[in-house]
Amino acid sequence: MPWKNAHVFSPSTFYVDRVCYTKILPQETPGNCIMRGIVTTLDMFECFKDKVGEVLLPGDVFSFELVPLDNKADKVICGPGLRRNGDEVLVCKSGILRHKPPNLYWIDSIQKRYVPAKGESVIGIVTVKSGDVFKVDVGGSEQASLSYLAFEGATKRNRPNVQVGDLVYAQFTIANKDMEPELVCIDSCGRANGMGVFGADGLLFKVSLGLVRRLLAPQSDIVKDLEKTFPFEMVVGMNGRVWVRARTAQQTLIVANLLESCENMTTQQRQALFRRVADRVT
Amino acid sequence: MRETPLSNCERQFLLKAIEEKKRLDGRQTYDYRNIKITFGTDYGCCVVDVGKTRVLAQVSCELVAPKDNRPTEGIMFINLELSPMASPAFESGRQSELHVTLNRLLERCLRNSKCLDTESLCVVSGEKVWKIRIDVHVLNHDGNIMDAASIAAITALCHFRRPDVGIQGEEVTIYTPEERDLIPLSIYHMPVSVSFSFFQQGTFLLVDPCEREERVMDGLLVIAMNKHREICSIQSSGGIMLLKEQVLRCNKIASVKVCEITELINKALENDRKVKKEGGKFGFAESMAKERITALKSEIAPVEMIDIEEKAEDIICRTGAPCDTVPSPVVRAPGTGQVGEGLQNAWGLDEVEEEEEEEDDIEQGGPEKQPESETITSKKGDVVVISDSEEEEVVILHQGVEVKDFREEMSSGQKQATSASKKKKKKRKLAH
């Protein structure tokens, strides 16, 4: 093969659509069949590993050649921002390529538009009360529906007290691109588990989805730094909405502004800023 | 796309904060957000940022016939656009109430205050006058579009230069910037609008409301004023009753704000003029912070080049007998040439060939190295075909000498072309 740079790519790759793991079976195209017999030396992981931590743009291509799958360790899991197209992997979001051992790859992008995904918890604003469903704005392309029976302890007689304009913390049970998304405020056991109507006072504001993911990461350093300033309550939805409440309106505003400014600051800058704020408040 | 609704908690919090004299971004009640003015490379183009609100203004001019009732006055036309880019709530192609209000306010602020000397725009009385058109585009909406738009419009007007015209008898000539220097418009004064929002039936007042403050406000008062404290327009909307003292107080605040903003505009204009004169870098691209992005760089692909020439020569040798009758290229007129005249389109034929080749590959089926190299050589054959069609073009254009080698391949008419290509096809099949 003098004409091409040869890389290996196993035909069976897993795809991660955020939380839910869906497997896409390899398509048996004629091209695939021909490629099967080729013995190659380079590993496809090399191709990805070279670029981990680098900025990639939509349209960038990882190209390999397919080999038959012999052991499961060769499978690559593509997360958000990576899309398989035949025997190549396309980048479809701009951001940094991230890697989680053993073989999970995704693009860490700073996006503002939310696309609903099954299983994600979001903050919604109730916009319409109609019959037995509420319409909830979650910042996606379409409003989600929330049944009034999907609250803890709700029955046909005992309706939950939800007004238009209220905030709800809820989870997606249906999130298809062709269907209206559906929310619930109970988990599989019928418990509220932190979900439901909230936010009598406090402030709601929007941040980028990248920052939300950083806030929700276990042992998030932003939250740890912020905790040292003063006590406050916070609800973070995967759709980029954050609700905070502190003792006074002043403190609530401080927390909100600190979080908004975290968007593009280095760790040192952030810690210096937080320390300064903490000194001044106390 | 609908607008994100305002939740109850946001509304309550905002009102409570305003009562405590607090604002979302930490401003005081009478503070403006940061105003930034940047100019494009062209004259009459500027972008104004007021906090996150961003507005672009572009001034252009053309010669038109004047209006019948004012034959000696130029025309000033103002157009404000709200595109969906600014906010998902704005729809394109539909005139919303906000759109009409803003257009009307801007028109009153600039045109009705007669800030532009329209008489100086007259070229030939009753026949030709300059029409100055101001296009204001809202690029991002975070409240107080009106102030940003008025600043952008007046700054762009001050920045604009129109071409000079000369009149000889009946003839009007427009000189290019190289022939004669461009002329700035004569501007009498600079009206700037200042917005005040009222809460709790006029109890609380805020200057320069942001988007969320605009949503919970009860009423709005817009005062357009120049730095000589002359009110150009004043409008109260939202249906709240204001006291005389309140309006006077707003007037006082506005005069201070207008002075500050006018000074800022003048400073920005002066700065731009200086940079342009010194030949420094200017324009939007230069005023943005540069950050390097490293995309996926592709490595140099190794391509084997060892016996390419031999192979190519071999293919050329095999491509068939040269035909002796070479028609002279047609030149219809001096300096014109024709491309591919009288020849059959070779593209379709190539495709047919390629398909056949592909079929061949599949028939051979095996992924071994042998057929791979076969396809490569045949691809090369394709390359040669394409290149000689190009050569044909070259021959016709240049009537040149340097392409002698390929002239033999040039065919006289459609029939010959097809027959030749058929020949080639056969030969290649033989080669397979």
Short description:
The complex is a heterodimer of chains A (282) and B (432). Chain A has helices at residues 30-36, 44-51, 209-216, 221-227, 249-261, 267-281; strands spanning 8-9, 14-17, 20-23, 55-56, 61-63, 65-66, 77-78, 82-85, 88-91, 95-100, 104-108, 121-130, 133-137, 144-147, 167-174, 182-184, 196-198, 203-206, 232-236, 241-246. Chain A has 282 residues and is of the alpha+beta class.
Q: What does this molecule look like?
A:
The complex is a heterodimer of chains A (282) and B (432). Chain A is α+β, with helices and mostly antiparallel strands and 282 residues long. Chain A is built from 6 helices and 20 strands. Chain A folds into 3 domains: 6-14 and 117-197, Beta Barrel (OB fold (Dihydrolipoamide Acetyltransferase, E2P)); 35-108, OB fold (Dihydrolipoamide Acetyltransferase, E2P), CATH 2.40.50; 203-281, 2-Layer Sandwich (Ribosomal Protein S8, Chain: A, domain 1), CATH 3.30.1370. Chain A has helices spanning 30-36, 44-51, 209-216, 221-227, 249-261, 267-281; strands spanning 8-9, 14-17, 20-23, 55-56, 61-63, 65-66, 77-78, 82-85, 88-91, 95-100, 104-108, 121-130, 133-137, 144-147, 167-174, 182-184, 196-198, 203-206, 232-236, 241-246. In chain A, a hairpin with a 2-residue loop joins strand 8 (82-85) and strand 9. The termini of chain A are far apart. Chain B has a domain at 27-286: Ribosomal Protein S5, domain 2. Chain B contains 10 helices and 14 strands. In chain B, strands 1, 2, 3, 4, 5 and 6 form a 6-stranded mixed sheet that branches. Chain B has a 4-stranded antiparallel sheet with strand order 12-11-13-14. A two-stranded antiparallel sheet of chain B has the order 7-10. Chain A binds chain B through residues 1-5, 30, 34-38, 51, 54-57, 60-61, 91, 125, 127, 137, 139, 141, 163, 165-167, 199-204, 243, 249-250, 252-253, 256-257, and chain B through 1-2, 4-13, 16-17, 20, 22, 24-26, 293-296, 299, 301-304, 362, 366-369, 372, 376. Chain B: Keywords: Cytoplasm, Exosome, Nucleus, RNA-binding, rRNA processing. Chain B: GO terms for molecular function: mRNA 3'-UTR AU-rich region binding. Chain B: This is Exosome complex component RRP45. Chain B: Residues 351-383, 400-432 are annotated as: Disordered.
